[in-house]
Amino acid sequence: xxxxxxxxxxxxxxxxxxxxxxxxxxxxxxxxxxxxxxxxxxxxxxxxxxxxxxxxxxxxxxxxxxxxxxxxxxxxxxxxxxxxxxxxxxxxxxxxxxxxxxxxxxxxxxxxxxxxxxxxxxxxxxxxxxxxxxxxxxxxxxxxxxxxxxxxxxxxxxxxxxxxxxxxxxxxxxxxxxxxxxxxxxxxxxxxxxxxxxxxxxxxxxxxxxxxxxxxxxxxxxxxxxxxxxxxxxxxxxx
Amino acid sequence: xxxxxxxxxxxxxxxxxxxxxxxxxxxxxxxxxxxxxxxxxxxxxxxxxxxxxxxxxxxxxxxxxxxxxxxxxxxxxxxxxxxxxxxxxxxxxxxxxxxxxxxxxxxxxxxxxxxxxxxxxxxxxxxxxxxxxxxxxxxxxxxxxxxxxxxxxxxxxxxxxxxxxxxxxxxxxxxxxxxxxxxxxxxxxxxxxxxxxxxxxxxxxxxxxxxxxxxxxxxxxxxxxxxxxxxxxxxxxxxxxxxxxxxxxxxxxxxxxxxxxxxxxxxxxxxxxxxxxxxxxxxxxxxxxxxxxxxxxxxxxxxxxxxxxxxxxxxxxxxxxxxxxxxxxxxxxxxxxxxxxxxxxxxxxxxxxxxxxxxx
Lengths: 239, 360
Known about the structure:
Distance between the termini of chain A: 40 Å
CATH topology of chain B: ABC transporter involved in vitamin B12 uptake, BtuC
Order of helices and strands of chain A: EEEHEEHEHHHHEHEHEEHH
CATH architecture of chain A: 3-Layer(aba) Sandwich
Oligomer: heterodimer
Number of helices of chain A: 10
CATH architecture of chain B: Orthogonal Bundle
CATH class of chain B: Mainly Alpha
CATH topology of chain A: Rossmann fold
CATH superfamily of chain A: P-loop containing nucleotide triphosphate hydrolases
Radius of gyration of chain A: 17 Å
Strand content of chain B: under 5%
Strand content of chain A: 25-35%
Shape of chain B: globular
Structural class of chain A: alpha/beta
Strand order of the largest sheet of chain A: 6-7-8-3-9-10
Number of domains of chain B: 1
Largest interface: A-B, 26 and 21 residues
């Protein structure tokens, strides 16, 4: 048997927060090259904080973050994007005064060559965006906005895509579409680290999951095991 | 199928709501075109003067709205920085500063000394020397903007200062600039050129001073150039993106520090040109800046903060309304700026986001 490939993302002992108070403590997460990994947990558990700290939007107080074995601890977002991490915030994740095409162009502008091809590639992946490319993003529906936000983050063909609650405030049908998109993006070779309230649906498309509570890592395991675990079902899936 | 469903949904909307949406979209245009058309016909002379003054307000307001939108600094030093640019151009042109005694000390190097620099071009009251001084004045003013941003605004922003603190700080910058100009050039008014100002006749227009025609052409040309940069180049798109959503801009790999610098260079440059042209149109005093501040802010808010096109139109409206209302004889010229504020208040009452603002 060949040894497993090294993880794309490796977080160990991460502590971060706002102001003086740590929100998450001693978090360790790994995302493999072809994996979808989901972080679940109750409101206020610090799920989004983990993503923001990895992406350099919050200062890392302690711990290490590695991308493909290289330390990226404390690097600012504009550097991490160039290193191959895409990030989709939960809210305000599009430029609403820009057109759809401009949103995608901004997503990919750090690499000028092949920009038009990559925009076409995203249009092919999400045909709904190609219908009116010069429409202002503010006129899109909630689901279309989420699609555009993910499309923007894909413009640099990241190795790791981090999604902060992609299903928040979406209708059940749109939620289905967004999750199908996530699976499709992963199938094309992008690792996914996702934070989700919709724990059951998110775990059902994931390879592995982490359960966060009160800022610490409570449980880890294959997604199927977490879905079957009595503790997870009782505490986080509302059964 | 999808389109038929969409049509049906649209038909189901309450007619009064649809009427409201329609009015919301078109009412500003109808009012502007209606009043503007009336003024253009009934008060042609004042209308044209208003347009000329308005293009200068517009140029400065475009700079202001870019700076406010992208750096979040409500730049109350905007008027005084215009005035400073005008004085810098004056220094380059005439080389004169306040002397130790009564008169001016004239520096040994100035543009007016160049051969033929003051020979009048066409019907204008100035020669190529003034145009050169304008360009150099703007180039001198841009580093001043960058320095003020780095020393004052960026430092405060890093310390977590909000809009109110930045506003007060910019007021401090304004007072500092005015004080410095008073020290160097004194309170008396100055002019770039003293000769007779020829008027020209452009078909279909009343006679205007040739210099005003120059101002009109430069102001409109620069606004078009700014529009092209903002809406047709990658730099402009990144600037608009940074103004729209700074965090997401960083998450897209935009270096917001670079964007910020370009905002000051372009926005500040436009403002500096506006200041110099305004001093050419009237005269140069240290009080020029404060007088300008209110109409420029009115123009920006009228157009919707962060929208360069709106700011340009806002500037024209403020200029025309001021000139035309005075010509009606109802109010005295001293209240010219006040009229612009009445318009501003009425617009904000009905449209809090301004005429063309993206969000409320």
